[in-house]
Amino acid sequence: MPADLLQGTLNMLILHVLAQAKANGYEIAKRIEQRSDDALAVDHGSLYPALRRLEANGWIEAKLETSPTNRQARYYALTKAGRQQIKVERARWQAAAAAITKVMGLA
């Protein structure tokens, strides 16, 4: 995923993935790739700092669990505050997309 696009959208994408089910970092990145038909590849160097920020904001929580490969992994889950934040992120995205559409003369 391009860094400039990433800055404004990664939090939203992570929250939306976790709204479906808890996941570890690898699973989050794979789900974003799959849901975007491989158009968005999340760099792990960007993913993990974003996960720490979301956790610090209280929007997600992490617990150590055993992965399907029998390894210990941090699994992230959405909090109640995170569910509220999805609404905020969605509104911001819709406003930005509408503005960009107007600027590009696509509306």
Structure, explained:
The mean pLDDT is 90. The chain starts with a helix and ends with a helix. Strands 1-3-2 form a three-stranded antiparallel sheet. With 107 residues, it is an alpha+beta fold. The chain has one domain (3-103): Winged helix-like DNA-binding domain superfamily/Winged helix DNA-binding domain (Arc Repressor Mutant, subunit A), CATH 1.10.10. The radius of gyration is 15 Å and the shape is globular. The chain is 62% helix and 15% strand.
Quick check: average pLDDT?
A: 90
Return the structural class: alpha+beta
Q: Under CATH, the topology is which?
A: Arc Repressor Mutant, subunit A
**Largest beta sheet, briefly?**
3 strands, antiparallel
| Strand tally | 3
Strand content: 5-15%
